[in-house]
Write a structure and sequence with these properties.
With 183 residues, the protein is mostly beta strands. Helix content is 5%, strand content 41%. It is built from two helices and 13 strands; from the N terminus they run ββββαβββββββββα. The strands form three sheets. A six-stranded antiparallel sheet has the order 1-2-10-7-12-5, with no helix packed on it. A five-stranded antiparallel sheet has the order 9-8-11-6-13, with no helix packed on it. A hairpin with a 6-residue loop joins β1 and β2. The mean pLDDT is 96.
Length: 183
């Protein structure tokens, strides 16, 4: 398992070892000791997945403190353009975004610290995304910023976006409660 830092502090791209044979593949996405050696969170409270069709854009989501969370995301079917935006005040990358191609073929994983907004755009016919989070989902603390307000060059000008996601505040109007703590 290879864990590589991204341009956003505390955010990592993880490349698991993939075992393939005539039956298919086997992918280990989490290993407690390796995560501990890198000082990454190993205490996850929930795991869930979403199924989305081509041209669906989900995001840019996060939970507010004190229910904010560390998140791991990966694609087990299909391919997505995944995006993160740093919302942590005093972060050297505050307001900056980074894009990743996540796919079942690559089997790569994103590890996101608390204080990052997350979203993705589905490039394949269908995509299944798995989320592992360090706090339990709290609907009244779950929110986001408007998907097209952070300067992200999404690959589609008119994606399928939920009514809820269309109503988020733009990044420029969001008052961040997140503070950067050097990882």
């Amino acid at each position: 398992m290879e864990i590589k830092p991204t341009s956003i502090p505390g955010c990592y791209q993880i490349f698991p070892i993939v075992r393939e044979d005539a039956r298919g593949k086997f992918v280990k996405v989490f290993h407690r000791e390796i995560f501990q050696q890198k000082n990454l969170n190993i205490d996850f409270a929930e795991e869930y997945y979403s199924v989305s069709q081509r041209n669906v854009l989900r995001g840019l989501h996060f939970q507010l403190p004190p229910e904010d969370h560390v998140k791991m995301v990966y694609c087990v079917a299909g391919e997505v353009l995944d995006a993160v935006v740093d919302l942590r005040l005093n972060s050297p990358t505050y307001g900056q975004w980074e894009l990743f191609q996540l796919s079942a073929k690559k089997a790569n994983v994103l590890y996101l610290p608390s204080g990052l907004a997350h979203g993705f755009y589905v490039k394949s016919q269908q995509a299944i995304m798995v989320y592992k989070v360090s706090t339990v989902y709290v609907p009244e603390r779950d929110t986001g910023i408007l998907w097209n307000s952070a300067g992200i060059p999404w690959e589609c000008e008119n994606p399928i976006v939920s009514e809820r996601d269309r109503k988020f505040l733009p990044f420029s109007q969001f008052k961040s409660p997140f503070l950067f703590q050097n990882p």
